[in-house]
Amino acid sequence: MTKDMRRRGLLTFLWNQDADDFAPLVAYSNSTSPEETTALKVTEDAYQSSRFYTIRCTRKRLLLFSIVFLSLLVLSSLLTAAIFNHILLNTCTTPSCIAASGALRRSAESSAATLHRINPEIADDRPAPCDDFYEYVCAGWMENTVKRTKGPAEWNAIHETAFRAFDRIEHVLTQIMQSPPLLKELTNSQRDAVNTYQKCMADNVEDAAAVFAYVDKEVGGWITTATNDMRLEDVLVGSYRMNAISVFAIAAVVNPKDNTHAALTIEEAVPILGTVAHYAAPVEYDVDLLLAGKAGNPLLNILKTTGYEVAGMLGMEITKEFEIGLAHAILFDTKLARISPLLHGDSDMQMETTLGDLRQMAGSSFDFYHFLRGFMAVPSSLSTKIIVAPGRAWLYRLLDLLKTYDNPEGQTIIKDYIKFKQFIMLYIHSGKLTVHKSPEGLEILDLLYNGNTDRNVFCLKRVGMSNQLGLVSLLERFFGVRLQENIKYAKEIVEATRKEYIDTLRTSAVVDNRDRPAMIEKAENIRIRLGIPEASRDVMALNRESELMINESMPWTIFFPNVMGNIHFNKMSRVHEPLNPDEWPADTNPFNVNVHYNFESNSILFPILMMLDQFVDSTLPSFYSYGGVGVFVGHEMSHGFDFKGRLHGPTGLDQNLTVGETSRNYEEKQKCFQAQYKNLGEMRTEDAVLSENIADNIAIGVAHKAWRKNNDLGKTLLPGLGLDPEKAFFVAYAQNWCALSKATSGTHSVEKLRVLGPLQNSAAFSEAFSCPVGSFMNPAKKCSLW
Ligand SMILES: [Zn+2]
Hints:
Blueprint: H1 3-21, H2 23-31, H3 34-48, H4 51-89, H5 95-108, H6 111-118, H7 133-144, H8 157-177, H9 180-185, H10 188-202, H11 209-219, H12 232-241, E1 248-255, E2 258-268, H13 287-291, H14 300-313, H15 320-337, H16 341-344, E3 351-354, H17 355-362, H18 368-373, E4 385-388, H19 392-404, H20 408-430, H21 441-449, H22 455-466, H23 468-507, H24 516-525, E5 527-531, H25 539-547, H26 556-573, E6 596-598, E7 603-607, H27 622-639, H28 662-680, H29 687-708, H30 725-735, H31 751-760, H32 763-769
Parallel strand pairs: 2-4, 5-7
Antiparallel strand pairs: 1-2, 3-4, 6-7
Helix pairs in contact: 10-22, 10-23, 12-20, 14-15, 14-21, 15-20, 20-26, 22-23, 23-24, 23-27, 23-29, 27-29, 27-30, 29-31
Zinc ion binds next to helix 27 and helix 29.
Cofactor: Zn(2+)
GO molecular function: metal ion binding; metalloendopeptidase activity
Keywords: Hydrolase, Metal-binding, Metalloprotease, Protease, Zinc
């Protein structure tokens, strides 16, 4: 029973007591028959006229008076206590509060604490909030979460949320697939999305050889069977057509100098092992050493095994010539990965050049003009501008590398490398063509890229890439009202947080007055988009997506890469047209579980999955969603003002945002965070890592302030948890960062630090949990930015 129910019960009992005093009289008159009433009436009349009656009546009046007086006294003191109680310690028992308790408990409660409630003999060994808030919130989650990925992929509350959302989407798709009338009602692009999903789910080819042989023919053979008359540039364009990006990536992305248009942009291609970090170990570039497994980087053995597996599927004979060809292809992958700016500590940012200049710089080693003509419906001129995103130093290293292969043998090696990567990507896109007991080559790569076992999740992610708009419009239709309400609520939160952020910029002493107007303007300009790309309601855009779904009779393994290739080519061919402002930038996907800030367009995107579960819920008290979406938006807005964001002006265009002392003040302030996070175990000191942590710190501050103005619970407690809303806000925040993995992901610190760092600096947190100054969660020295 809740306190509230207990109190109501007590009041009812009191009133009953009062009523009971008069019960005999009332009861009598109601329960007696007419004859009895008459008899009683006669006796009563005689009794009332006696003297004895008068005395008794006086006594009875006195007694009644005392009873009423005492009752009123008791009642009034009880009412006072109740009112007091209501103000100070009331527990909220609305369905919304009960649901909020459940949602917090799902992640926050440790199993030890649960057992303690069932059997108080068992110790509640959950750490105290002021000692380690991450453990306090996440210990239970870590014990209870069910990991749904295998292999090295990480697992955290965000992944868990994504999988929950995937389950719900799968449910919708299955319902549609089983109901012909429902299917009939869909629009073309919605039906395309269902078809792609169905195709992916149905395809379960055990033997990849047929598919590989098909591609083998398309790419003109591999290694010893390669026909050498194809130009390197054409082989590369061909692999792009099947969505395998090697040597370098080229795409049409928002032009930083004019964000109404796209620009052709060259970027690094992802190396075969997925990340450049895997190539950090120095390598002996010797074919024999590599074949003997002694090249220096043991991970290269995965690629060697992969090569043999592909050859096996193609029915190739393993000859010495093949082995040498394979080793050269692997060493090229290594050399390419090792020119990455990440391994050279380059400080230069992207450069702009022209197609003509690029062509001239590369000389005979690679014809960029010929290469680009393979993509473009509208032929490019030599003056076409090209942005080299990883910068000048990287470009020079790439051109130098290509020049060392500028001879027939070298060109063959690069071509073999491109095809090798294409086979691997086909395998990865297929999901599960073959299954071995202990993963080797290809299966290790599959784990590295896909990281999960659930075919439905694999397929949903793929449909999210190939049929982005169709799937979104389908979900909008089927999740209807609930999704709309969450999005509407998220919009309110986002605007309340933005307002708080702007107020902070308006008053901050860190901001130089000369910079203040531009910074406020930038914050006001940020376009914040929630869940649904506007283009998914645009018939033209939906039709265009449908047109890219060709050749439905193709097996999945070829169908999907083809569709993705089409999407890429389509974007490239429209590079000279104005951008559709309602299309989401190419580097974002509504099905990622990762909020994204785009520097060039000064926009923040919340993918649809984040509107379905965990981070915003319009039916729960406000602390819950401010601790989710509110914090996320505060974080992303902060990127607009970090070391990189300051290079983009108030609309996102390439220009310095600050001219005054703001940057210097900012850098001075960030030293405090640098020291704090080093103490917490973050050894990386790059600006990119620091800016993520600073963004977390700003975010919790502005989201909390915005929430306080929109706190819809007052001071009431949450049922069953004893948390007031102030405490609950921080629990809701922290539970979004619970994680099993202890590894860093990209430039972010480990999840634990994303809880500890910002909360150690938050005075509001220490106040909420009454953490003594000097306790771990409330150090005397606090860092702040704005
Ligand atoms: Zn970030």
